[in-house]
Amino acid sequence: MAMLAGLAAVALVMAASPKSASAATICTPTGFVRDGINLTAAQINPSGVVSGAVDASGCDIGVYYGPGASGTVKQADLHGAIYYGVVNNGGIVTVENSQIHQIGDTPLSGNQHGVAIYWVYNSAATGRIVNNTIWGYQKGGIVVNGVGSSAEVSGNTVTGLGSVNFIAQNGIQIGYGAQANVMHNVVSGNSYSGTSTVSGGIIVVGGPGYGDAYTTNVQIEGNTVTNNDVGIWLTNIDASGNAPTTATNIRVTNNTISSDGVHNNYGGFGYQAGVADQGYNDKIIHNTISGAGYNPTTSSSAYLVAIDADSSFTNKVKTHANVTR
C-alpha cells in the first residue's frame, strides 16, 4: 500500500479560536504570531525555574521562551492554554519532570492547534524534553520542528485521547529538518476514526513533498508505543511525493509497538501499521510489533501491517531481527 504522503495528520496549526482571559490569569502578548494572532502567554521568559501550578486558562501559551532566552520548567503542573503549553522559540530550554495537560480549546475541537510542548519551526530552538507526563492535548504532545531545532526527547509519557473523530492527534513529532533522539518514551492513544487521514504515535516528517527540508539521522530507540494508528511513522518525500534519493538514515531500534484492534477508518476501510517508512536507507531493527491492530488477519477490509516498507514507496530500507506477534 502506498505511503500516506501529504496527510493532514502532520499539520499543526490552522484556524484560530476565540479566547477570554480568566480573572486569575494575566495573558501578555508575546510577539509570536500564529493564525494572524499575536499569541499571549501566562509567563514570558521567566527567570529561574518554573515549577508548581501554572494555570494558563484564557492564554494562548502557558510559558513562552523567545529568541536567545534560556530557562527550565521543572516539576510544574501546567494546564489550560489554548495553543501551546510550553514554547521554545529560539532559546535553550529544559522541560522536565512536569505535567502538561488540557492544552487546546474548551471543549477540545478539530482546530489544528493545542500542542503541549513546541520547539518553534526553524527557530534554532534547542534543549531537553525529559520525564514529563503529557495528556489532554488537542493536536500534539511534543513537536520539534525545522532546520536548526534540536532536542533530547526521552522518558516522557504522552497519552492521546484514544480514537476520536474530530482531530488526528500525534504523540511526538520531529519535523522539517529538526534533529532529535527519541528514546524510552511511552506513547499511546493517538487514533483518528474519521476517513481522511491517520494519527501517529512517533512521527518523523519532511522533504520537498511537504514543502520543506528532509528530516534525517533521527534515532528512535527503546520506546513503548501502544494503540496508535501508525506506531512509528517515517515520512520523508520528494517533490513528486515519492521516496527520496538522498539518505535519510533514520534508525528505529528496540521499540515495543502494539495495537489491540482496528480504530482507524482511513478511506472508509482503515489503515494501521506498527512501523511505516518512506525514506532512504532507514533502518528498522530489533523491534517487537504485536496485537490485532497490526495483524492483517484481523480484518478483511482494513489494511493492517506490522511493517509497511514496500520498495514501491521507500528506498533501500533495512529491516531485520524484528519480532511480530
Task: Characterise this structure.
The chain is mainly beta. The chain has a single domain, classed as Pectate Lyase C-like (3 Solenoid). β1 and β2 form a beta hairpin. The radius of gyration is 19 Å and the shape is globular. The two termini are 21 Å apart. The N terminus is likely disordered.
State the gist of this model.
It is built from no helices and 29 strands. The protein has 325 residues and is an all-beta fold.
Produce the secondary structure layout.
Blueprint: E1 28-34, E2 37-44, E3 49-55, E4 61-65, E5 70-79, E6 84-88, E7 92-96, E8 99-103, E9 115-119, E10 126-130, E11 133-137, E12 140-145, E13 150-154, E14 157-164, E15 170-175, E16 179-183, E17 186-192, E18 200-206, E19 219-221, E20 224-226, E21 230-236, E22 251-253, E23 256-258, E24 271-278, E25 283-285, E26 288-290, E27 303-308, E28 318-320, E29 323-324
Parallel strand pairs: 2-4, 3-5, 4-6, 5-7, 5-8, 6-9, 7-10, 8-11, 9-12, 10-13, 11-14, 12-15, 13-16, 14-17, 15-18, 16-19, 17-20, 18-21, 19-22, 20-23, 21-24, 22-25, 23-26, 24-27, 25-28, 26-29
Antiparallel strand pairs: 1-2
Overview features:
325 residues, mainly beta, Pectate Lyase C-like, eleven-stranded mixed sheet, 29 strands, 48% strand, globular
